[in-house]
Amino acid sequence: MSDVERVLPLVVRVERAEPPTRTDALEAAARAVLVMVTTAEPDWRDAVDAWQGNRIRKVVRRARGSEWRRAAELPGVTVQSGTAEVRVYPPIPVDEWPRDLARLQVSGTELDDPAAPGVPDPGTPLVLLSPDVEMTAGKAMAQAGHAAQLGLWSLDPAVAARWAADGFPLAVRTASGAQWAAARRSGAPVVRDAGFTEVTPGSATAAFVFAPAPVAR
């Protein structure tokens, strides 16, 4: 376990005229985390492994215009999902943020879905957000990333490899009460937040279900 606490930086592109939808941003963030934790890039692998050996903190910031262009020039990977673009960077020590990321806004990122997201295709890996915990979009993006990461760790290596080869298809939805209860009963990986921001420490914020079955709402 590394003694240096690290954080995984994520930046969501939020242009004033055309912000992404909330669900697209959540799904892009979850996939971006999975892309980084499975990276084979030798310059990043040690940082990822050291971060995964400690608390898997994630911080989501937002950028637009020239801020986004500068952020996109730093080493990382941009993941797109529908209307959303999220760039993920290799983990860094918590007090060593690059200047072009440190200056970005971190709190109060709010996004909306103009219409209710559709029902995911059958068998789509699913991140469920708790119906009992209110979170900003930025906080929910981090929690979706946590859940996807815990879910990846829970899979058989061969299954995880196939999922990666497919590009980590997934959906993120806020659970109904019945869905949340079913996920908890099933033993699905559940995120319990450390409580650094927004939520009470220990709150169950998100869960991961790899092969969700239909649940009465």
Automatic annotation (TrEMBL):
GO MF term set: peptidyl-tRNA hydrolase activity
Domain of life, source organism: Bacteria
Class of the enzyme per the UniProt entry, highest EC level: hydrolase
Swiss-Prot/TrEMBL catalytic activity: an N-acyl-L-alpha-aminoacyl-tRNA + H2O = an N-acyl-L-amino acid + a tRNA + H(+)
Protein name according to UniProt: peptidyl-tRNA hydrolase
EC number(s) on file: 3.1.1.29
Alphabetical UniProt keywords: Hydrolase
Pfam families associated with the record: PTH2
